[in-house]
Specification:
This protein is 15% helix and 41% strand. It has 150 residues and is mostly beta strands. The model has no long low-confidence stretch (mean pLDDT 85). The protein contains two helices and nine strands; from the N terminus they run αβββββββββα. The protein has one domain: Sandwich (Immunoglobulin-like).
């Protein structure tokens, strides 16, 4: 019985003393340093800004690293903000939005096919395995609006 009362008194004193602070203490673990690798540039080679409904445009990209790191791997993804269309690689594989696809080469081509006669606006992102990300915005005007002078 003595041990029970002593334990209860000890618990109550810890509870009272532990809750006496006016601030919340949050534990934040230290993260391991990130291997930085080399940053890179993402270049979109010259392309048209007009697309017809059911028309396709090839987008030629080039990754230019600022140094050589043999273990660097790249992935590509995209998100579409306006318009209806699909993005494919040159083997006609469909690229879903917000999904990273492995790139085998630093020079790659993506084909965009329009399924609407409205503006098309999307962003292509390339990420390396060191956390560097580069983005390119792509915008197409519909051919029918360009023909009408809009």
């Amino acid at each position: 019985m003595k041990n029970l009362l002593f334990g209860l008194a000890l618990f109550i004193s810890f509870a009272i003393l532990g809750c006496n602070k006016n601030e919340l203490s949050i534990y934040k673990p230290q993260t391991a340093p990130i291997v930085t690798g080399f940053d890179f540039e993402l270049i979109l080679e010259g392309t048209t800004s007009i697309i017809a409904k059911y028309g396709s445009v090839d987008l030629h990209f080039r990754i230019v690293p600022q140094g050589q790191e043999p273990s660097t791997q790249y992935t590509v993804s995209h998100i579409q903000y306006m318009g209806t269309g699909i993005l494919q690689d040159m083997e006609d594989n469909f690229l879903g939005q917000n999904i990273g696809y492995h790139l085998n080469d630093r020079n790659f081509t993506l084909r965009y096919t329009s399924y609407s006669d409205t503006e098309h606006f999307f962003e292509v992102s390339v990420k390396d395995n060191f956390g560097h990300v580069k983005k390119k915005k792509v915008k197409f005007m519909p051919q029918n609006e360009v023909a009408m002078g809009k």
